[in-house]
Amino acid sequence: MIYPIYTYGQSVLRKVAAPIDPDYRNLQEVIANMTETLAHADGIGLAAPQVGLSIRLIVIDLSLLNDIKPELKDFKRVLVNPQIIELSGEKENEEEGCLSLPGIHETVPRFNHLVITYQDPDFTEHTETFDGYVARVIQHEYDHVEGHLFIDRISPIRRQLIQGKLNSILKGTTKCAYKIKTVK
Predict the structure, then answer these.
(1) Annotated binding site for Fe cation
(2) Residue 40 is part of a domain; what is its CATH number?
């Protein structure tokens, strides 16, 4: 089932998401639906708050980037209860977009190295280290389970310059190619 993607202004996007345990109802179905939703929206990452679920769950599939980053074509992860335990290295600026902020792309500074702990869908613990683009994607999605959006990381001037687009999202007048759930 394809979920609607919650857009800017939805309160669930500003809440710190709750951890989940092995008894979480229909977890495998939720993961499958989030994965299908991500593919349908031509996205590379999706956090549960973006589909209205305030839980610590992220799906990532970088295969869409095969043409420009072929080394990432097989990178897929489901992160249950992720916790970033280290951010380090240089901060690099790169353009980001977000399915919850259709039509908005801004340059965002992110650390180029991270260490993260998480559980897989069977609740097996993992600790992994990521660099470069993968580290960026994980930080972006992790922000969602912490109640943040990438626009929180841009300068006040840039934020002012995109205010018209943010207002369009709030009013429900922004168009995009995937199913969304707006405030209005």
Answers:
(1) 98, 140, 144
(2) 3.90.45.10
* Structural domain that includes position 74: 5-181
Residue 163: DSSP 8-state:
H
Active site residues: 141
**Residue 78 β-bridge partners:** 59
d(CA 32, CA 125): 20
Contact status, residue 178 vs residue 40, Cβ threshold 8 Å: yes
Of residues 73, 87, 63, the one with CA closest to residue 153: 87
In the chain, the number of structural domains is 1
By DSSP bridging, strand 45-47 and strand 57-61 are: antiparallel
**pLDDT tens by residue, 6-50:** 999 999 999 999 999 999 999 999 999 999 999 999 999 999 999
Q: In what order do the strands lie in the sheet with 125-131?
A: 45-47, 57-61, 76-97, 105-119, 125-131
Which residues are known binding-site members? 98, 140, 144
Give the closest residue to 137 by CA, choosing from 30, 54, 65, 66. Answer: 65
- The predicted pLDDT at position 156 comes to 96
CA distance 159 to 157: 5
Grouping H, G, I as helix, E, B as strand and the rest as coil, residue 174 is coil
DSSP conformation letters of 29-68:
HHHHHHHHHHHHTT-SEEEGGGGT--BSEEEEEGGGGTTT
